[in-house]
Design brief:
- The complex is a heterodimer of chains A (107) and B (173).
- Chain A is mainly alpha-helical.
- Chain A has 4 helices and 3 strands, in the order αβααββα.
- The radius of gyration of chain A is 16 Å and the shape is elongated.
- With 173 residues, chain B is mainly α.
- Chain B contains 6 helices and no strands.
- Chain B has helices at residues 2-12, 17-37, 42-69, 89-114, 125-152, 158-171.
- In chain B, helix 1 packs parallel to helix 3.
- Chain B starts with a helix and ends with a helix.
- The A-B interface holds A 4-7, 10, 24-25, 28, 40-53, 55-56, 69-72 and B 19, 22-23, 25-31, 33-34, 51-52, 54-60, 62-63, 66, 71, 74-77, 79.
């Protein structure tokens, strides 16, 4: 499976769902909190990302009978979890290389 | 608040119908919740509405693009592929074009100096702007026509073929 860079909002949405299933507004607040207020998603951006993630099978909706139509919960699928781990691995490698090069330059 | 929600609903109408049916109610609910959390300062409010409304506009554009052409531009970050890099000759060609443009401007200035007094012959700025506007509208109409034709040509129905085959197989016909 290929690895590829994800946009920051999508990465944060996935990280938010990694912890626990969440509905739209909870994702919005969690993304804001994770990025320390730097990334403020609009509803258009959030649902654009959710639609594409649903389409790719990275997340799914949880069927809750008593949930109102305007408050549906999303969770990460196994595929989404696997791809997220690969992306984090890619970033970890990049960070390691960067740290080594910075240390080499400073020495 | 009611005005903001009304504007939000109008902008939501820019999305494809299927998208609105799937996410519309949820988006409105999240917008209401987010709006209630905005600090009561003017800057915070302006910033919130600007973010929300611009996000809706770009989201609607993207949703239509995805609907017409499929999710070709998905959530992957764009990065330049090796095959899309400019060849080295491009730099030379760009310099030639740049030099040609400079020479043309210089020649045009010279001719304009020679024909001073003939200004009545040249079209006014207003007519040039009107001409450019009409040209741009015509170009936009042509592009829209092409996209509309592509959508109406039956290409978008191809995606239903597989599901039809599957349904035939599952029914054992």
């Amino acid at each position: 499976m290929e690895t590829f860079p994800l946009t920051e909002p999508v990465l944060l949405v996935l990280l938010s769902l990694l912890e626990q299933p969440r509905h739209g507004y909870a994702i919005l607040k969690d993304v804001e909190s994770m990025s320390r207020g730097r990334v403020l998603l609009s509803t258009g951006t959030l649902y654009g990302a959710l639609q594409r993630l649903l389409g790719e099978g990275w997340i799914e909706r949880i069927q809750e009978d008593d949930a109102p139509r305007d408050r549906r919960t999303y969770r990460l699928t196994m595929r989404g979890r696997r791809n997220l781990q690969m992306e984090i691995e890619r970033m970890r490698h990049l960070t390691k290389v960067a740290a080594l090069r910075i240390a080499g330059k400073e020495a | 608040m009611i005005v903001a929600l009304t504007v939000y609903c109008w902008l939501l109408c820019l999305y494809p119908v299927s998208y609105r049916e799937e996410f519309g109610e949820e988006m409105k609910s999240v917008f209401r919740d987010a709006r209630n959390e905005v600090p009561p300062t003017l800057i915070a409010k302006i910033s919130f509405y600007a973010r929300e409304f611009s996000g809706l506009l770009s989201g609607a554009l993207r949703a239509h693009f995805d609907r017409l052409f499929g999710p070709a531009l998905s959530f992957r970050r764009f990065y330049m592929q090796p095959q899309f890099r400019f060849p080295r000759s491009t730099v030379f060609l760009m310099l030639v074009i740049f030099a040609g443009t400079i020479l043309t401007i210089a020649e045009a200035s010279k001719i304009a100096g020679d024909t001073r007094g003939w200004s009545g012959v040249w079209p006014s700025l207003g007519s040039v702007l009107v001409f450019m506007l009409v040209t741009m509208c015509a170009a936009a109409a042509i592009v829209w026509g092409i996209l509309h034709t592509l959508r109406r040509s039956g290409v978008h129905r191809l995606e239903n073929v597989q599901s039809w085959i599957d349904s035939v197989k599952s029914n054992g016909i």
